[in-house]
Each structure stands twice: as structure tokens, then as C-alpha cells.
Design brief:
The protein contains six helices and two strands. It is mainly alpha-helical and 171 residues long. It has one domain. It has a two-stranded antiparallel sheet. The two termini are 43 Å apart.
């Protein structure tokens, strides 16, 4: 990646498995909070469809709502990841963890690569999450989804701290 100020290449460090996992947990927490608003019937125990004896009318009315809420929640999750990757290369969890998604050529991720990476994530989870666990063993810390989408997850370089100016006398 090239620095805008002096056009010198920056040495980037690949983000490891645990840092990425932590960022993903934060993202899942954010998405879970949003999804909880899509299924208000679960707040009152109406999601229990195995015992309909006590609430025969209400849970049956909740079934269509839950059936719609689940695909909408999945779609919003996909939009969350792809939109934030394409916008700034970081989800909220990635910002917190100090990591960023870039393409293997050092450029920013676009929507097409974001969608490819999201679909690659699904492929990576199918064989018992082996494609995601691959991050821990890969030289460049790429999971299968990163290899498919030609992306890296790197640590965000810290800016050098500048010396603070002394306060003016008498202040």
C-alpha cells in the first residue's frame, strides 16, 4: 500500500486469527442487536412453537412474521458487511480491532470483491469452518474467502504521536 503523503510503500502486518475472530464477534453482536428488533414476538416467548396449547392464536400469527424476519435479517447482515467493506474497508468490529480489509494489490475493496468475499465466507464455513480456521495456518493469514476474493486483512498502522505543544504561560 502506498502512503498518500510521501508515496513510499508502507509495510503492513497481516491480522491474525484471534484479532479477526474478536472483530467478527463484535459484528455479530451489532447484527444480533439489530435483528432482535426484527423479531419482537420473541421478546414475550411467542417464538416457542413446540407448545401451542397456551397461546394457540398468537404464535400462529407470529409464524409469518418470523418467516419474513429471518431472510430479511440475513439480507441485512450481508448488506452490512459488503457495504462497510466497500465504503471504508472496515466493519464496526474491524474498526474496534484496528484491522482493515484491502485487496491483494493494495487497493481498496469494491462492492464486487465484497460480494465475492461474502459468498466465499459461506463456502469457507461449509466444511466444518475449515476455510475460516485456515487463517491461523496460512502464511498471509488468508482464509479461503480471502483467497477467493483476493483480499488481505491487515492491521491498521498507528500514526506517529506528535509532541504536544506546551500550554502558554499564565494559562
Amino acid at each position: 500500500m502506498i502512503s498518500e503523503k510521501n508515496k513510499a510503500p508502507l509495510a503492513l502486518e497481516f491480522a491474525g486469527f484471534w484479532r479477526r475472530f474478536g472483530a467478527f464477534i463484535i459484528d455479530l453482536s451489532v447484527l444480533g442487536a439489530v435483528a432482535s428488533f426484527l423479531t419482537p414476538f420473541h421478546w414475550f416467548g411467542f417464538g416457542n412453537f413446540f407448545d401451542l396449547s397456551g397461546f394457540i392464536d398468537v404464535p400462529l400469527l407470529a409464524i409469518p412474521f418470523v418467516a419474513i424476519a429471518n431472510p430479511v435479517s440475513a439480507m441485512l447482515s450481508g448488506v452490512y458487511f459488503v457495504a462497510l467493506w466497500a465504503w471504508r474497508g472496515q466493519t464496526l468490529g474491524m474498526i474496534t480491532a484496528g484491522i482493515k480489509l484491502i485487496r491483494t494489490d493494495g487497493t481498496d475493496v469494491d462492492t464486487g470483491h465484497g460480494i465475492t468475499r461474502l459468498l466465499g465466507t459461506i463456502v469457507s464455513t461449509l466444511p466444518l469452518f475449515f476455510g475460516l480456521l485456515w487463517i491461523a495456518f496460512d502464511e498471509r493469514r488468508q482464509g479461503w474467502h480471502d483467497k477467493i476474493a483476493e483480499t488481505y486483512v491487515v492491521k491498521v498502522p498507528r500514526l506517529p504521536e506528535t509532541e504536544r505543544a506546551a500550554p502558554p504561560a499564565g494559562a
